[in-house]
Write a structure and sequence with these properties.
294 residues, five-stranded mixed beta sheet, 14 strands
């Protein structure tokens, strides 16, 4: 049984990389402050769980959550220190970085069928991040639809062409900041790179991601936070038109955390939201995350 010490860590994948040729892998995008990853344990757990679902971790190949945490910790701290030393090339300094780790199945020759014995390859990267505070976003509805695939649903796999096409569509829509992605039935799933929560008559809701979409780290954290604080939140299938009945809403991911939504436009209808409740929740969750140790 091999472990993470038998695996390669590289920032330049080879031409035989299964990540490059087939999108055969998973990843997590993390927020780092002064070289310390927020919600590190959750990111490492998600990577291991996704690697198991993709059978990158199998009866012949294994690595643990602690293995990944150590790898990420070292890389994040080294990246932050390197960024500090290169301040002469920056007009504005920042203590924040976005750290990303790809876990790819081992390289192979041509063909879809992988070797179940090949050691995974870890591909880390980092870039400076400049947080924007006290901002809101507006939403529109994407024309493209997300496909349903229960085997891959919830997994942060490398096949992100749906999100790429959604971002292209968003770039052509100058009236909104993000788009709501739905399935063929019109059920809302997520935004282009975030999950979404909305409140109708005092009850919070978030879309189900059992058939498509990504079960984001911040989504998981918020659901746990709401449960701990006895805040009712339904995870359910609901038509996108439900957003027109909401009083407040926010988007979330591990980098931006919670961002209040100011208004939504769906077809010829639109509604404005009270951003106050979302801002209040965002502050409470941000404060709680800041107290956690990586």
């Amino acid at each position: 049984m091999m472990n993470v010490s038998d695996c390669a860590v590289t920032i330049v994948p080879s031409l035989k990389s299964r990540a490059l040729n087939y999108g055969d892998g998973c990843f997590s995008t993390m927020l780092s402050r002064k070289g310390h990853i927020q919600l590190l344990d959750r990111h490492a757990k998600r990577l291991v769980n996704d690697a198991k679902k993709l059978k990158i971790i199998n009866s012949k190949v294994n690595f643990s959550i602690d293995d990944l945490k150590n790898l990420i910790k070292i890389f994040a701290l080294e990246s932050y220190n390197a960024a500090k030393q290169s301040t002469e090339t920056k007009s504005v300094e920042t203590e924040w970085q976005i750290v990303k780790l790809l876990v790819a199945r081992g390289d192979s020759e041509r063909g879809y069928a992988p070797s179940m014995h090949s050691a995974p390859i870890f591909i880390p990267s980092a870039k400076d991040y400049y947080p924007v505070t006290d901002h809101t976003i507006s939403l529109g509805l994407a024309h493209m639809k997300l496909a349903e695939q229960s085997i891959l649903s919830g997994v942060k796999h490398l096949n992100r062409l749906e999100q790429v096409m959604a971002k292209i569509e968003l770039a052509d829509d100058e009236g909104v900041d993000d788009l709501i992605l739905t399935n063929a039935k019109g059920l809302m799933i997520e935004l282009t790179s975030s999950n979404v929560f909305y409140c109708i008559d005092g009850i919070w809701h978030t879309p189900c991601v059992e058939k498509s979409g990504v079960n984001g780290i911040m989504r998981q954290y918020i659901l746990d936070y709401m449960q701990r604080n006895q805040i009712i939140c339904n995870v359910s299938e609901m038509h996108v038109s439900a957003l027109l009945s909401a009083q407040t809403a926010f988007s979330c991911n591990a980098v931006t955390q919670l961002v209040p939504i100011s208004h939504v436009s769906i077809g010829d209808e639109s509604t404005c939201y009270d951003i106050g409740p979302s801002q209040c929740l965002a502050q409470k969750i941000s404060d709680e995350i800041a107290k956690e140790k990586s």
